[in-house]
Amino acid sequence: MQTGQTIRLSLPSKGRLESDTLDFLSESGLRVFKPNPRQYEAHVPSLPDLGIIFQRPGDIVVSVRQGSIDFGITGMDVIEEKRGPNGDLLILHDALGFGYCSLTLAVPEEWGEVTDLPSLQNYSARLERPLRVATKFPNLTERFLTQKGIPHSLIFAEGTLETAPTIGYADVISDLVSSGQTLKDNRLRALPGGVIQPSQAALIANRKALQTNPKALEMARRLLEYIEAHLRAEENLLVIANMRGASPEAIAQKTREAATRRLAQKKATPHHGWMRILRSLAGLTGRSHFRGGKG
Q: Quick one: 145 and 155 in the same domain?
């Protein structure tokens, strides 16, 4: 990290979220330069005033909330779990488009009668004790179960949760689920209606830093510009092709028939019966730009 940097962005330090974050930033024009993979500091050549720190996902939230770090990228699951009640943490962008998962209640496969939250309520009501729920997200899980009126006791665990019902120290678990394969491998299933917190990667900032530090506010603007430009570009598909046709109108008709999209613009110069089509498909809106060219 270069000297003199006063603004810092914290990124996940390991696992799939780290690699996906680095790929996302690189695709956004914000390549992170980390000469030594064992170092926990780096920098972004395109933003020389920005320093990079690598931390665990939960520590990113705490650091940004406390103000020791200005910005962070991590999952909405840990953001909502650790953001605190005082509003010191500000979410700048809550949908970066990667790191998808959800904090979800999972029950043993053998609980055939438990198919949704109401049936879980009925099942727990027949127990002579509160439902035991193992989780790494006590705040979100507590809030959810209380809102749903399910008597419970939380068991905070740092290790593998999927084995908790088999071992016997918990009845169900509240854990992050992506594909659901790990649940199946451990004879568990996600409970329909039991999603506690949908999650994907998000950009967060320290509110006070933005209010009191003009450099931090300017950096927030620049980060969002890079990110928004990349996300908008991902929604566009560019197709270039040569098509034979007597006129731009004839080619437009072929294009409509093939893609069932309305042409917004058309302009071309014929060249030996060939037209060069530059077609930009943005979302559900089709726009075709024609120009003459050799095949």
A: yes
